[in-house]
Amino acid sequence: MKVALIPVGASEWGEAGRLLGRAEVSLTSRGRKSCADWARTLRSLHPSRVYHSSDDLAAQTAGLIADAIDAPVKEVRDLDEVDVGLWAGLTEAQLKQRYTSAYRQLCDAPLGVRAPEGEDFDEASRRLVDGITRLVRKNGAPAVAVVLRPLALTMVRCALEGRRPQDLLSAVRDHAAPIVIDMEATGPRAPAQEKA
After folding, report:
1. Which stretch of DSSP H or E encloses residue 180?
2. Thinking of the domain 2-186, which architecture would CATH place it in?
């Protein structure tokens, strides 16, 4: 089975380099255009369904893509973005300045971080990977598409590809297009070990 990990379309916060967390933001015109472009690419996969997290940005992205490729959509709460608590809306520079030690840990061992008034990153990663794994097992179709916010997409991708989650912050900026992972070739993997 192939899983297309689709980033949410562009938003004003995303374009400004702000951490989205679970903040409700809307697609920009650039985000809507990206969805149309991605749909053309995804059409050849023939995904049975487009899954998305429970926020409006993911639902908007999934809806535009699903309409273009004539696939049903389904919300899955286990795919919700990592709750970054008080960090929502901050740029990387602001995070580094205001939360120096947490920022260092995000760079060195991100799964050991818990955002103030937010979610433990290791627990979030496990929730997301378990959610994707259940989805893949239950679906049984040749391909599915999953729309995720930046941190969630990065955590899932690292786990599915067996990569270490170092450079989590820089990796969230690398999602300018869907990433297709062949689950038969890779299979869900345990997260790679981080250096303490």
Report:
1. strand 179-182
2. 3-Layer(aba) Sandwich (3.40)
